[in-house]
Amino acid sequence: KKSVDDINVKGQKVLVRCDFNVPLQDGKITDENRLVAALPTIKKLVADGGKIILCSHLGKPKGEPKPELSLAPVAKRLTELLGQEVKFVPSPVVVDDTVKAAVADMKDGEIILLENTRYRAEETKNGDEFSKELASLCDVFVNDAFGTAHRAHCSNVGVTKYVDTAVVGYLMQKEIDFLGNAVNNPERPFVAILGGAKVSSKISVINNLLDKVDTLIIGGGMSYTFSKALGGHIGKSLCEDDYLQYALDMLKKAEEKGVKLLLPVDNRIGDDFSNDCNIQIVKRGCIPDGWEGMDIGTETEKIFCDAVKDAKTVVWNGPMGCFEMPNFAHGTEAVAKALADTEATTIIGGGDSAAAVNILGYGDKMTHISTGGGASLEFLEGKELPGVAAANDK
Ligand code: 3PG
Q1: Which has the closest alpha carbon to 219: 361, 316, 363, 359?
Q2: For the chain, does the N or the C end have fewer beta carbons within 10 angstroms?
Q3: C-alpha angle with apex 198: 196 to 199, nearest 5 degrees?
Q4: pTM of whole model > 0.90?
Q5: Architecture of the domain delimited by 186-380
Q6: What's the rounded mean pLDDT across residues 103-110?
């Protein structure tokens, strides 16, 4: 895999695809982890004397310029983080004559940021015209957008058809190394913890991980489908009735493979979906009508935490309960703390689990927190990510 260490960018125009798809509230960035994670590659290219043209998507503007989805706040914040101007070169069509003139004017070591690539409708269709326009801006293409690697769009895949050199950046490299090693070459015991609302969104992950792990822990909203499949009462808990058989199949597969599959043995339940509802802890499968499971229970916390104690590799994707509500954050927090305390290599899938770990204050205790939500999930499914494949072609 060629990376930014294998090229000489002195005096070259370098188009860098980053994932600056960050949450914004009233024009303010509320989580800047993706920006911070992109800095090493940018700094390296600046130090090597490249002319750096950054690009990214933000949200889903669906091919229309939407002012609230402009990358202007990102340029401003990157300027502060780098201590060097990141000049924002906005255009409603992303690439136009003004943008081309600005690129032609760049000096070595300067940085510009283009407007949201999804202002162009072709972007998400991986169309040729926009891909060519992007490629025409640069001599070299660097893909550092791991968070977008599961998409095949112009700015991360199409563009590589029209450039001579395409390499990966440090962030992409790091993500692939950590996730790839964990899944394909883990130090054992290897424990995976899966949570989150839906079994349906984790089908392929469960299936793939059962071929790899020593222990699979299933908590969160998806565990109630398993509980019901086993004949339990789950009240008004989340459940996907179409996946009951699948849940049984996975339990059987685990047994056949000799994988220890741990489900909650008890749950913290509420009589309303709110932090201040009435709360009790009951055994799995004993949730009364009118109540719903909102977290794992205390006995389960102990079992799950014990299971990671002697692990050498732990991958975690998906919270154990409704961690946004303090009364139902106990399970997620217990698991986060157990991961912080273990000697194991700990890898956190992006999205909700990354947010949970950071909000609960355990972020810097983890070995690696992925910047990819959907991308890390597809990686754990064992899929080849189009963004990674395209960058490796050249
Ligand atoms: C993400 O946040 O998962 C990536 O930036 C991809 O965004 P998308 O789901 O809008 O394609």
Answers
A1: 316
A2: N
A3: 110
A4: yes
A5: 3-Layer(aba) Sandwich (3.40)
A6: 98
